[in-house]
Design brief:
Radius of gyration: 30 Å
Strand order of the largest sheet: 2-1-3-4-5-6
Largest sheet: 6 strands, parallel
Shape: elongated
Subcellular location: Golgi apparatus, Golgi stack membrane
Number of domains: 2
Pathway: Protein modification; protein glycosylation
Strand content: 5-15%
Bound molecules: 2-acetamido-2-deoxy-beta-D-glucopyranose
Protein name: Fucosyltransferase
Distance between the termini: 92 Å
Pfam family, one: Glyco_transf_10
Helix content: 25-40%
CATH superfamily of the largest domain: Glycosyl transferase family 10, C-terminal domain
Family: Belongs to the glycosyltransferase 10 family.
Length: 357
């Protein structure tokens, strides 16, 4: 009521005042926007190094595969879903070095000389990942890596990035496992025949008591595409590692024995170490026997006792061994997730001290 009669109010709608009000509003918005942006800026930088897919999608984490291990090319950027490759871009193009967030160095391909390592100065946010799948006995010149590496990747559980040769997975429900038809007793495949090694000496005794079919090293042929089919006909497979080290359990156990449906007879780290990865009733350990002869008589007794032999497959109603179709791809795929979770700063003074335990 008073408003209409107030001349002051009438005057307030003049164009100059409106212009001034709008100007003030624009100024205020600008100030508020600036404050808001300043407050948000550090947060988005932080999210960049974390698992914020929307931020990462704009600027991918570039992972440089410095070399293809053993020169074997494998598909990049085809990470199985469970390894979460989202937000990462894998490349083997060394010209992208300067923009790479991580460089994965495969030990065998770089250990001979520092000249094999990247030569251009390292960008401050770039991590070097040391990748190795050999045992310490076959891993020379570790000292070359002193004070260079930020993250380790290997078959050892205590690596920053644990990249095992294989693993078991749990079925969702109890499954029936059909034991492959067995027509033969025992097999062993070996490529590196060293007469002084423990495994070759052990075999030398064992074969006096047991029929063992040897594959590889100029003996029976074991084509890669028929390996599982051929080995599955054996009751036992000798998964003897070339050297004995913590967690050093290779495809001899995972692919040759377990995936093929054989009962593994293992030589490697102690039984407890195996039991970190596979059920205790899934394998036979040579250390459980006082001599090769005792092991042989146990295996022969199992050969005659179908029911007892079958016990070694009970665990398979709960677990299965996934096939390792692209082991290199899968190992490298683990890097992406690890980078998203990695500590902000870390240098490893000596890989040797840790790895050669
Ligand atoms: C088993 O469970 C996983 C994870 O919960 C699920 O992704 C998968 O589809 C299930 N598989 C079957 C055969 O039910
Ligand atoms: C990685 O290690 C190098 C070499 O010691 C170091 O200069 C760099 O700051 C480290 N980077 C990270 C992200 O930890």
């Amino acid at each position: 009521m008073g408003q209409a009669q107030n001349p002051e109010t009438d005057k307030s709608v003049n164009p100059v005042k409106i212009f001034l009000l709008i100007s003030l509003q624009i100024l205020l918005s600008f100030i508020l926007f600036t404050m808001y942006y300043r407050r948000e800026a550090p947060a988005s930088t932080k999210a960049d190094s974390q698992d914020d897919v929307t931020v990462i999608a704009k600027e991918p984490i570039i992972i440089l595969v410095w070399s293809f291990p053993f020169g074997q090319r494998f598909p990049l950027n085809q990470c199985p879903q469970q390894f979460d490759g989202s937000g990462c871009l894998y490349t083997a193009d060394r010209t992208l070095y300067s923009s790479a967030h991580a460089v994965v160095l495969f030990h065998r391909d770089v250990y001979t000389s520092k000249k094999q390592l990247p030569q251009t100065p390292r960008p401050s946010n770039q991590r070097w990942v040391w990748f190795n799948n050999e045992s310490p006995s076959h891993c020379p010149n570790l000292a070359i890596m002193n004070n260079l590496i930020n993250l380790t990747m290997s078959y050892r559980v205590d690596s920053d990035i644990f990249a095992p040769y294989g693993w078991i997975e749990k079925h969702n429900t109890t499954m029936h496992f059909t034991i492959p038809t067995k027509t033969k007793l025992a097999a062993w495949a070996i490529s590196n025949w060293n007469p002084n090694s423990r495994r070759v000496k052990y075999y030398g005794e064992l074969k006096n008591y047991l029929q063992i079919d040897m594959y590889g090293y100029g003996r029976r042929n074991l084509p890669r595409n028929r390996q599982s089919e051929i080995l599955s006909t054996y009751k036992f497979y000798f998964a003897f590692e070339n050297s004995i080290h913590v967690d050093y359990i290779t495809e001899k156990l995972w692919d040759n024995a377990l995936y093929s449906g054989c009962v593994p007879v293992v030589m490697g780290p102690p039984r407890e170490n195996y039991e970190r990865f596979i059920p205790r009733d899934s394998f036979i350990h040579v250390d459980d026997f006082a001599s090769p002869q005792e092991l042989a008589s146990y295996l022969l007794s199992l050969d005659k006792d179908e029911e007892k032999y079958k016990q070694y497959f009970n665990w398979r109603s709960e677990y299965y061994v996934p096939p390792q179709d692209n082991p290199w791809t899968v190992s490298y795929c683990r890097v992406c997730k690890a980078l998203k979770e990695a500590p902000p700063y870390r240098t490893i003074a000596s890989i040797e001290k840790w790895f050669k335990d």
